Amino acid sequence: MASRQVAFEVTADQAEHLDTVLEAAGAEAITWAEAAGSAAVLEPPPGETRLWDWLRVEALFPGDSDIDAVHAAVVEALGGEPSGWGTAEIADQAWERAWLEHFQPQCFGGTLWVVPGGMQPPEPEAINIRLDPGLAFGTGTHPSTALCLEALAAEPPVDETVIDYGCGSGLLAIAALRLGARRVVAVDNDPQALIATRDNARRNGVEDRLEVQEPAANLPVADRVLANILAGILQSLAPRLIAALAVDGRLTLAGLLATQAEAVRAAYQPACRFGPVARADEWVRLDGRRLAV
Fold it and tell me: 197 with 81, same domain?
């Protein structure tokens, strides 16, 4: 059966409790993103975690859902008509066919391969990660993800504790484990991402060394922290990620454009020392180490 998607935009102040409202209305998946033209809120007031002034929410419902009732629930929660309200019918499994059209086996660092489920690995003796991203982002095709995979392949986290913050499909977490990490903690605020991460870890035989958790949970002290998110979120997370990084531990930050690199770097200094910026198209990766301060 086809699914129904609703999408609309709200101010950051209106976003609170909308997850609960949409879930109560029957949403199976909810994603948040920066609305077009939104200005970042990089230093929210104490007690708040706002990152943008306008947010776009997309929620997926079963095909037989009463979308009029969903609309009514959102209107009641917001106290008025949501901005940019729209609906769409999503063909069953259309997402799977779409990503398979563009997702072919890829090699990173000469030794690490990401292979879609059902395809034969080009090098069976290499480190091959079998991946089905499900409804979560992360196939290695995006330049920022590729930059992170290349960093892992270049300096494998052998016998290390690693945090993958914003894990998406779990690709980076699984890559770290396949490259020798002792333990990986994968963090995401999207329940679909946590489900996809668990499933992909099981598919690759590394679920026994993987822990998945929501952002509110306590983080361990890690030898390496990976965060492939967005520049504004990376800045706001700086105190939390620095605190989770052991002295001389390695920090890998991606998901940012070249024009955003300096602001993100500044958020982690002087606690971290950074090397040269790695680039892929307009995207960059920052590599740092935690200093004893």
Answer: no
